[in-house]
Write a structure and sequence with these properties.
The chain is 36% helix and 28% strand. By secondary structure, the chain is of the alpha/beta class. The protein has 2 domains: 32-106, Ubiquitin-like (UB roll); 109-238, 3-Layer(aba) Sandwich (Rossmann fold), CATH 3.40.50. It has a 9-stranded mixed sheet. The model is unreliable at 19-29 (pLDDT under 50).
């Protein structure tokens, strides 16, 4: 029987490679965590701190320094961090140097609810508790707080945050009743009566045209109310 030496060599080479891989993988898993690094992605206003994240991990897993890598279950660590009400998402992984890395994206508040219950409204329209670490500078929402009115306020806030002028100047939304929303501005004394959330783009376009002309004429302080409820016109009430 003729022996194929090339086949034997190839089989031996594959076996050696597999053996080295298994040995290397075993050695790698035996290595211990060299340190922990927590990084916040995006907004650097910290509603949750590195200390809080470390505490969460220690409470669930104990001290992680010098723990063998094979004992780590990274996806459950992500779930523990994401269970915190300030966290939107978390990614946990090990670097080639054995460092445990956690990249965290926080939730983003866009409005502050001041009613019988006090909380933030986040950029997904969900309630978010206040943070002990940082207070967000966002429009304050007052008045008749209901599920429907908060859904409408969320749509208004989304529109405001897409517009540089509105984002810088609107500091509050008062809910007179459902379908009747009033905006408070940073510098001027007048109230902008928005009405419902229909035709927001048209309403704000009319308002910005009025604002630009009144600012040029230096008459902004002459008005107590600017009403945008009516089609194709801005109705103003003087002081």
């Amino acid at each position: 029987m003729r022996i194929n030496m090339n086949f034997i060599k190839l089989t031996g080479l594959i076996g050696a490679i597999m053996g080295l891989y298994a040995f290397s993988n075993h050695r790698s898993m035996q290595k211990k965590v060299a340190g922990i690094n927590i990084e916040f992605v995006g907004d650097q206003n910290l509603y949750i701190t590195q200390g809080v994240v470390n505490k969460l991990l220690i409470q669930n897993y104990g001290p992680l320094n010098n723990v063998p890598k094979e004992k780590l279950v990274l996806n459950t660590m992500e779930e523990v961090i994401e269970a915190n009400e300030m966290v939107k998402s978390a990614q946990v992984y090990l670097t080639v140097n054995g460092e445990l890395m956690s990249k965290i994206t926080q939730r983003k508040p866009i409005g502050r609810i001041e009613g019988s219950s006090k909380f933030y409204l986040d950029d997904e329209g969900k309630s978010m508790p206040f943070s002990r670490s940082h207070s967000a500078r966002v429009p304050i929402i007052t008045g008749n707080i209901t599920g429907k009115s908060l859904e409408d306020v969320y749509e208004i806030l989304k529109f405001i945050n897409k517009d540089d002028f509105l984002r810088k100047n609107v500091i509050g939304i008062h809910i007179a009743e459902e379908e009747n929303y009033q905006l408070k501005f940073r510098m001027e004394h007048f109230v902008v009566n928005l009405g419902g959330i229909d035709n927001l783009e048209s309403k704000f376009r009319k308002f910005k045209a009025f604002y630009s002309k009144a600012d040029k004429d230096k008459t902004l302080n002459d008005y107590a109310m600017v009403n945008l409820e009516f089609n194709n016109q801005v109705v103003c009430t003087k002081i």
